[in-house]
């Protein structure tokens, strides 16, 4: 029985900063991503195709920090990270610091399927995507007025001129999807712009297999969000798989333990996970996390905070 979980990042806008329009736009974006993934799973398609399709939809939506709507680095540019992992074979592909690939998760998929590498970076990632015939764009495609505003505020903060502290939402975010298909295959995909004003060349956890992204059939698929340095140090996504595999922990317990570790690090963190039987977990220690799920019976829900996770028509 298939299931699908997505996230749009744990760097969520504080409730008070949402307008009814921006709140609804985020919910609609989550629902559209669920539709894109579920369309594949409900027709007996592969988990790896479903997570790619869901992440493409989130990359294309300006509410989330990936693809169109990604944050700007210290130089005012976009450098994008993405990864995908197929639990059937533990094949994985990733790109880091890509600058011109419209949908970085598609490039990650090609790295997995059509190269002998796992991770390609910067100019090499862009060149590979171009060779593969993927859609390439100017940097301006990724930029939104909101992200420019966040960048200016980060610059003011550096100069000690900021009156109101920056919110988590201004700093970071990520998108991701995990799925179990009808044949019992697990897959995970994650994509991000990183965090606002990050150092040029900085790479987060998203494209580091075992840190921000991991999938293994018979165990679990995981996609993470939060300050990547902590997830890399802890090997978070693989740690959850190890807890389930070696200790027989339930996915909810393993996922919560990982969040507890990151809370100890004082890292705002969230993750989504689905195990080999379709049980899901979506823990986070932040005020909110954009998230959505479709459970085996086809019930779809999306939400941002603890109390607004509610059904949406697929
Ligand atoms: N994990 C992302 C990174 O560190 C950011 C985030 O999820 O908020 O690049």
Provide the descriptors you would attach to this structure in a database record.
314 residues, alpha+beta, Glutamine Phosphoribosylpyrophosphate, subunit 1, domain 1, 9 helices, 13 strands
Structure explained in plain terms:
- The protein is α+β, with helices and mostly antiparallel strands.
- The relative contact order is 0.19.
- The model has no long low-confidence stretch (mean pLDDT about 95).
- About 35% of the residues lie in helices and about 20% in strands.
- The strands form two sheets. It has a nine-stranded mixed β-sheet.
- It has one domain: (Glycosyl)asparaginase (Glutamine Phosphoribosylpyrophosphate, subunit 1, domain 1, 4-Layer Sandwich), CATH 3.60.20.
- The site of aspartic acid has 16 residues, from strand 8.
């Amino acid at each position: 029985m298939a299931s699908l979980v997505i996230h749009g990042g744990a760097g969520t806008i504080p409730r008070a900063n949402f307008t009814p329009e921006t709140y609804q736009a985020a919910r609609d974006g989550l629902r559209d991503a669920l539709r894109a993934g579920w369309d594949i799973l409900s027709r007996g398609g592969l988990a790896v195709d479903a997570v790619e399709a869901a992440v493409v939809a989130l990359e294309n939506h300006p509410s989330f920090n990936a693809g169109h709507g990604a944050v700007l680095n210290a130089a005012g540019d976009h450098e994008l990270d993405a990864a995908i992992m197929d639990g059937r074979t533990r094949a994985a592909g990733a790109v880091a610091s890509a600058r011109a690939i419209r949908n970085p998760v598609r490039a990650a998929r090609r790295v997995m399927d059509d190269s002998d590498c796992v991770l390609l970076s910067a100019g090499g990632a862009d060149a590979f995507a171009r060779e593969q015939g993927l859609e390439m764009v100017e940097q301006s495609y990724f930029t939104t007025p909101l992200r420019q505003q966040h960048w200016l505020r980060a610059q003011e903060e550096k100069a000690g001129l900021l009156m109101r502290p920056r919110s988590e939402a201004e700093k970071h975010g990520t998108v991701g999807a995990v799925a179990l298909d009808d044949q019992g295959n697990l897959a995970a995909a994650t994509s991000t712009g990183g965090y606002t004003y990050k150092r040029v060349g900085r790479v987060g956890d998203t494209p580091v297999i075992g840190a921000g992204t991991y999938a293994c059939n018979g165990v679990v698929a995981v996609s993470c969000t939060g300050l990547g340095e902590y997830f890399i140090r802890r090997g978070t996504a693989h740690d959850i798989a190890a807890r389930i595999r070696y200790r027989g922990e339930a996915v909810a317990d393993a996922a919560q333990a990982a969040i507890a570790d990151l809370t100890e690090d004082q890292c705002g963190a969230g993750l989504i996970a689905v195990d080999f039987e379709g049980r899901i977990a979506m823990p986070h220690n932040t005020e909110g996390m954009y998230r959505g799920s479709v459970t085996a019976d086809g019930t779809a829900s999306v939400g941002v905070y603890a109390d607004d996770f509610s059904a949406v028509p697929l």
